[in-house]
Amino acid sequence: MLVANDITVRFGERTVLDRVSLTVASGEVVALLGPSGVGKSTLLRVIAGLLTADSGSVSLDDRDVTMLPSHRRNIGLVFQDEQLFPHLTVAENVAFGLRMQRVGRAATAARVAELLQLVGLAALANLHVTKLSGGEAKRVALARSLAPRPAVLLLDEPLTGLDRELHDRLATELSALLRATGTTALLVTHDVDEATAIADRMERL
Amino acid sequence: MPALAAAPVAGLAVFYVWPLATLLTRVLEPGSVSDALSAPGLSHVLWFTLWQALVSTALTMAIGFAPAYLLARFRFRGRGALLAMVTVPFMLPTVVVGAAFLALLPNSWHGTARAVIVAHVFFNIAVVVRLVGAMWAVLPTDLTAAARTLGAKPAQVLRFVVLPLLRSALWAAATVVFLFTFTSFGAVKLLGGAANPTLEVEIARRATQLGDVDGAAVLSLLQLLILGAVVWWSSRWQRRATVHLGAGGVARTARARHERRFVAFAGALTALVMVVPLVVLTSRSFRLGGGWSLNAWRMLGSSEVRPGISLGVDPLASLLTSLKFAVVAALVSVVIGGLAALAIAAARRHGSLLDVGLMLPLGTSAVTIGLGMLITFDTAPFDWRARWWLIPLGHALVATPFVVRALLPVLRSIPVDQRAAAATLGASPLRAWLAVDVRRVLRPLTASAGLAAAISLGEFGATTFLTRAGRETVPIAISRLLGRAGEIPRAQGFALATILLVATGLIIGVASGAARADGGARAGGE
């Protein structure tokens, strides 16, 4: 269970988040809705440990992780613009988190193959990520974040910037994928339809 | 185009191609290659040149890494000032840097390889900060954030994401630093002593002290070949390492406590490292006999230490000589560079040939240029060695490419329509040209004239060969004074180096101010 409690973030004079609290139960998929500029992405960054909040706490399965650095939180984040590593192939991108944990070669290969199968990109394993289409890149980003089995997966507007048809198809796929893997997820979006399609529950910011 | 290009082409042919060709004929003379290569001590020179360049490069890369990260990734108060502090030493004359470390380092370090290496690092940190920093600044910040959310520890982020993505910039910086330190002359001459000669210093020694011009010519060609091979090899690696990045990163204010600590600590340390040698240089010019004194400065006006005892160098006269040379070099390079830029902009295809041709002197070591001129212009009717203008012309040769670089983007960006518009408004072609073109090039022209003057003021390598008694430039005078035993000439050397430091700093400041005010025409500069 993920609990964000009383989070406040100020950038200079501007208060971006003012005592925001939020809970995501284990196995639950929650959509965080709100107009742009309201601090949704900022909240995700605080939860992921990429940004230090001015006050408030984050806990994961009853453990306080507020002071824990990002790499020790086991919280995955899918970026709006994917942020795939441009010097690596599709398979190497997906394997990255496992490599950081020094998972063995065989286990890594098996996990990467499994995830690429899951997102339907098995054929592109050895392609450089700079050669991917928009939809393919989104799938690789998702597979990469899921590979190290994060306790919580954060998704920052993961389907923005795709055309309508692809958007709808990926929304269905994403929903099925999160359920199939039993992933606890927090999804940021400004699109109510997208939220309804993917999430169990909605929160507004 | 042909008419405009005539002067630059002729200048390049007479003062660059001809001397280099003469150098080549000396090499081709029977026996000169085998004589030069079998001369005793050559392997020591080559070995020293190579290892000091490698160590200097490795240390510069390691030490420049933190300031490169700091300046590329963070916004903080005094960032502009710190960037200037890091960049200015790179543009300082090598003798000033040499003098600064002579003033800073203890006597036991004088004449050692350590001293040379320390000065090289100080000098070249700017290369790492500029080249690696430029790449780092466009590295998306979220890419490292992504790595962290995937469980990468800070060291792993560096090793698996940052370094691979910076690899091409790291290669470029390492290559540039290696080339600079391999061909280092001024700093080695002042700090290295007789036991530690680089190839460049050895070439000068053979030509000017031993009179072995053929041997010197062979060594310059050998150096040219080595440098060419390094550039070729490195550019292949660099191309292979290039990764295309998406959207750029954003420099930001440090938020977390460890980041704020890093910014404060690294910023302060960098500022200290960059400023202390220059401050010590200045203060040492006021030290005599264990106390503070203005005597070294007072005595700059005469060549006598004590009544009747001459130094052989007149510091104040060297200042006037240098000023005269700087003005002439700036004028010549602005005229020649301006004509060349106009010709290159007007002619599309053949223009690039002239462009590359004019860049060549930059890639040739100063000592090679000086040596080539020395052995070429020594017979009537071209016996110009004793003519004062040969030195500023040599300086202009090196400075002209900068003028061309500064002017070309502006000239190319002038829309033809603007000129046509001026013409339809009743302006004669000359008036139209004056109104539209000249107005826009005035600022870059001023900036590059300043840069040319600064180059001329600090030039040491080529001048060593062409200098004549009684007509020493400031860098030559500094090296002579610092080479003397005795406290007074030393303090005078430091005083003269301080003057050169301030003059160069002022010119660079004014010139870069002019270039920045021109920002609309060409973003970023350089």
Distance between the termini of chain A: 20 Å
The number of domains of chain B is: 1
Strand order of the largest sheet of chain B: 1-2
Order of helices and strands of chain B: HHHHHHHHHHHHEEHEEHHHHHHHHH
The assigned structural class of chain A equals alpha/beta
- Predict the CATH topology of chain B: MetI-like fold
Q: At the first level of CATH, what is the class of chain B?
A: Mainly Alpha
Rg value of chain A: 17 Å
User: Termini separation of chain B (Å)?
Assistant: 26 Å
Largest sheet of chain A: 5 strands, parallel
Give a structural overview:
The two termini of chain A are 20 Å apart. Chain A contains 6 helices and 9 strands; from the N terminus they run E-E-E-H-E-E-E-H-H-H-E-H-E-H-E. Chain A has helices at residues 40-48, 90-100, 105-118, 134-146, 164-180, 192-198, and strands spanning 2-11, 14-24, 29-33, 55-60, 63-64, 75-78, 152-156, 185-189, 201-204. In chain A, 35% of the residues lie in helices and 25% in strands. Chain A has 205 residues and is of the alpha/beta class. Chain B is an all-alpha fold. Chain B has one domain (2-27, 40-525): MetI-like fold (Orthogonal Bundle), CATH 1.10.3720. Chain B is built from 22 helices and 4 strands. Chain B has a two-stranded antiparallel sheet. In chain B, strands 3-4 form a two-stranded antiparallel sheet. In chain B, a hairpin with a 2-residue loop joins strand 1 (287-288) and strand 2. In chain B, helix 1 packs across helix 16, helix 4 (79-91) packs across helix 12 (257-284) and helix 5 crosses helix 12 (257-284). The longest helix of chain B has 32 residues, at 42-73. The chains are: A alpha/beta (205), B mainly alpha (526). At the A-B interface, strand 6 and helix 2 of A face helix 7 and helix 8 of B.
